[in-house]
Design a protein that fits this description.
heterodimer, A: Rossmann fold, 5-stranded parallel beta sheet, B: two-stranded antiparallel sheet, 51% helix
Chain lengths: 143, 115
């Protein structure tokens, strides 16, 4: 685990909303503000999954979004990780018995890191990203 | 001698060695850009297709800009004219003959009165 030594690569993150109420999305945006400034470690949001290392998924995955989430996941280059942000992605949250869900997220995509909360605080999201970075380094070492 | 001496055409200069050197330089730049690319890219999968917010890529023909798009503004500007003229184009030859005869008669009357 090289985390404390070098940050030998920037960790670029793509955010995908699969039916979130926007609470988690607001916290993700809060996490990239100057108060926390993860960009000083090379961690930043990108506009395309084709540039990303980590897929940040919020929301319980509605039926309309399931196929799109799979397509976006497939477009992320390897090695890649999926982070589930918020309770909805883990269990469906308040939407758990909705007729309109294909989720939670792990029913649709292989999730590597779960960040619980409704919504999770920015510190928790950044902690999850650090966990993701550790796992990504292990995956890269194995490749 | 012939290879190295630049050929002055009167309009410019042609030197095969300089051209080959430029080509080689461009090839090296292209190679460096290619080498810096993502090596784990999987050809033929979604990784090679464009990102369209998760939507499937439409057929190439469905996203082409048609030629009519180029003169859309022209048609829009002349819309009142087209609205009046297009219904007149019935495609029936006798209608066109009637228009021809009527306009010719009108012109003859105008010319006969004015001149």
């Amino acid at each position: 685990m090289k985390l404390t030594k070098s940050f030998n690569r920037s960790l670029w993150v793509f955010h995908l909303n699969t039916g979130s109420c926007n609470g988690c999305d607001i916290e993700i945006v809060a996490a990239i503000t100057p108060r926390y400034d993860p960009e000083r470690f090379g961690i930043k949001l990108v506009g395309s999954p084709k540039h990303a290392d980590v897929l940040l998924v919020t929301g319980p995955v509605t039926r309309k979004m399931a196929a799109r989430a799979r397509r976006v996941y497939e477009q992320v280059p390897d090695p890649k990780l999926v982070m589930c942000i918020g309770t909805c992605g883990q269990s469906g949250g308040v939407f758990y018995d909705s007729y309109n869900l294909d989720g939670p997220i792990d029913q649709v995509l292989p999730v590597d890191v779960y960040v619980p909360g409704c919504p999770p605080r920015p510190e928790a999201i950044i902690f999850g990203v650090v966990k993701a970075q550790e796992k990504l380094e292990r995956l890269e070492a194995a490749q | 001698m012939g290879l190295i001496t630049p050929l002055l055409t009167g309009y410019g200069v042609w030197n095969p060695v300089a051209w080959l050197a430029a080509f080689l330089g461009a090839a090296i730049i292209v190679y460096l850009i290619w080498r810096a690319g993502e090596s784990s890219y999987k050809k033929g999968t979604e990784q090679g297709r464009p990102y369209l917010s998760g939507n499937a890529e439409p057929d190439k023909g469905a996203v082409h800009i048609r030629a009519s798009n180029l003169y859309w503004g022209y048609l829009q500007a002349l819309k009142p004219y087209y609205d009046a003229v297009v219904p007149v184009h019935t495609g029936v030859l006798t209608d066109y003959m009637i228009w021809f005869v009527a306009v010719t008669a009108l012109l003859l009357v105008i010319i006969g009165v004015l001149i």
